[in-house]
Task: inverse folding
């Protein structure tokens, strides 16, 4: 039996083997009459649904006799199909058609969006009748192979528990040797969780499958698997993630979830074709990441007090800056959790929504439906929110709408891609934002990076080379007298991690933020209103007022034994 085999053929085959069926000539007059009445009522009902669909602006489909394939029906699980009263009746790879009793339900639109996002197909919802729904649901019973696909293949908590002892790369390589393909994938996921990795990279190369983990922001090769395992391994990953196994020449996106008792791990999977097969990246999104408190971010005095004062204001903009992977979203989530009380209405607009936050309305933009940051923000303003988070300000339209929101009684949080806090204001100006609107709207700008922290169990004092020490001394000598921080640059002591089995010889474990906070002042507003703004001018004014730069904050944390000077210069210079 093939996935392309039509359901009509299966129904016919099932009917032929289910016992003798009466011929029409063998039916009694009463049976013939009852059958005709039922058919008339069925046709009338279909006409009613077709009219209702046209009135509501939906396409209509009649699934009676429609050749639904296994690929199509397996796109939605049986339980979900029954709950939402919807079935997938077409899935060609490029096109997906869903049939629903009530296509207006938000849950069905969410399902359509997720299917389209995962498969890159054009997904459309049709209105169908109760009879068509019954036809669709009957397919699950007819096709044993569909039941297997719908149940899916997953990684359970028990699977992960079998490999909780894999904390080192040596153990990982040893565990992979001789393991079957099912266990290989489980071992990789378990090891990534044990080592607190954020991403698993699986890449097909000429002679081997290379596995790398991104640990604390750094990509590290952790294992190699024989190239002969590639076909089985990639098929297993695709099966778990809901991807098309036979598609190898196109990018695909999928996902799967692992429930580990109190924590849920959402794994986003991305594949792209390469010279020797495909490259797979699995991003692990931990729900525990949403519980980070503002106090644990690593903000030192006086920044913690400044930021807390700014988020207590009823309106204005708080903007975080930095490259991808610098922790901007985590900082915004920590602020949201601080503000999240029953009397505060919070709405976010994200691309995509990576973590679910209880008590906060989160909206995801959809480029396919022209639901952009700018248009979504205008819609959010009609929801009467107190606090708004916009994932990123990318263009003038979004910037102007955000500023208007900040000026009209809303506290708005967002991010912008600049190298540091001082660069955010010139970036707004270059977008075309009017200075007289920007100056009163901004509350503060946060610049940040993430530094790896020294592993406590192998931390020891170290001496810097002359060039690095001179650079550190210069930074500390430039601390503003208004910063409230004084360092004896001739008596500075630094540390590093010498490496041990527990940290896989890396010397680091975990990460901490280094920050600079540029709070608005009369001097900064005056420069903005002049319209002649440069990044260097902003930085000089802020430093004169007492701002500690990211690099200086990093050196102070290095003096506290939290990180190394090399790590600070790697991310902040």
Result:
């Amino acid at each position: 039996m093939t996935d392309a085999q039509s359901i009509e053929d299966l129904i016919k085959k099932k009917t032929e083997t289910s016992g003798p069926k009466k011929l029409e000539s063998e039916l009694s007059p009463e049976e013939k009459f009852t059958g005709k009445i039922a058919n008339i009522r069925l046709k009338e009902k279909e006409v009613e649904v077709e009219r209702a669909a046209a009135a509501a602006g939906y396409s209509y489909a009649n699934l009676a006799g429609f050749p639904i394939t296994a690929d199509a029906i397996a796109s939605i699980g049986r339980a979900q199909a029954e709950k939402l009263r919807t079935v997938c009746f077409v899935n060609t790879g490029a096109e997906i058609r869903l049939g629903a009793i009530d296509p207006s339900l938000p849950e069905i639109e969410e399902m359509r969006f997720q299917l389209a996002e995962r498969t890159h197909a054009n997904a459309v919802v049709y209105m169908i009748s109760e009879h068509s729904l019954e036809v669709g649901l009957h397919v699950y019973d007819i096709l044993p192979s569909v039941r297997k696909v719908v149940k899916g293949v997953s990684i359970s908590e028990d699977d992960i528990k079998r490999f909780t002892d894999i904390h080192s790369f040596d153990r990982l390589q040893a565990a992979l040797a001789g393991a079957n393909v099912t266990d290989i994938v489980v071992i990789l996921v378990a090891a990534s969780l044990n080592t607190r990795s954020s991403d698993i990279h699986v890449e097909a190369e000429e002679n081997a499958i290379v596995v790398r983990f991104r640990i604390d922001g750094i990509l590290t090769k952790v294992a190699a698997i024989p190239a002969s395992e590639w076909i089985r391994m990639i098929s297993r990953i695709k099966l778990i993630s809901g991807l098309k196994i036979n598609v190898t020449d196109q990018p695909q996106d999928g996902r799967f979830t692992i429930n580990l008792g109190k924590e849920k791990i959402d794994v986003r999977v991305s594949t792209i074709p390469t010279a020797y097969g495909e490259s797979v990246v699995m991003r692990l999104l931990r729900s525990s990441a949403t519980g980070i408190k503002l106090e644990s971010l690593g903000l030192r005095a006086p920044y913690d007090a400044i930021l807390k004062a700014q988020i207590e204001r009823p309106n204005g903009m708080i903007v975080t800056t930095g490259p991808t992977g610098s922790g901007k979203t985590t900082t915004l989530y920590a602020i949201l959790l601080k503000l999240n009380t029953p009397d505060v209405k919070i709405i976010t607009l994200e691309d995509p929504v990576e973590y679910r936050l209880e008590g906060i309305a989160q909206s995801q933009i959809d480029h396919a439906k022209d639901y952009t940051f700018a248009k979504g923000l205008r819609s959010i303003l009609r929801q009467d929110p107190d606090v708004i988070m916009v994932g990123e300000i990318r263009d003038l339209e979004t910037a102007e709408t955000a500023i208007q929101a900040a000026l009209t009684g809303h506290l708005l949080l967002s991010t912008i891609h600049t190298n540091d806090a001082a660069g955010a204001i010139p970036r707004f100006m270059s977008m075309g934002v009017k200075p007289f609107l920007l100056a009163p709207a901004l509350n503060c700008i946060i610049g940040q990076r993430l530094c790896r922290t020294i592993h406590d169990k192998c931390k020891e004092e170290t001496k810097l080379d002359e060039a690095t020490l001179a650079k550190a001394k210069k930074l500390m000598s430039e601390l503003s007298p208004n910063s409230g921080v004084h360092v004896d640059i001739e008596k500075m002591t630094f540390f590093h991690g010498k490496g041990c089995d527990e940290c896989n010889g890396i010397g680091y474990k975990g990460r901490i933020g280094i920050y600079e906070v540029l709070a608005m002042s009369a001097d900064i507003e005056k420069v903005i209103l002049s319209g002649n703004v440069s990044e260097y001018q902003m930085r000089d004014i802020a430093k004169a007022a007492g701002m500690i730069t990211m690099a200086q904050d990093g050196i102070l944390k290095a003096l506290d034994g939290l990180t190394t000077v090399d790590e600070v210069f790697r991310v902040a210079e």
Notes: DSSP finds 22 helices and 19 strands in the chain. The mean pLDDT is 86.
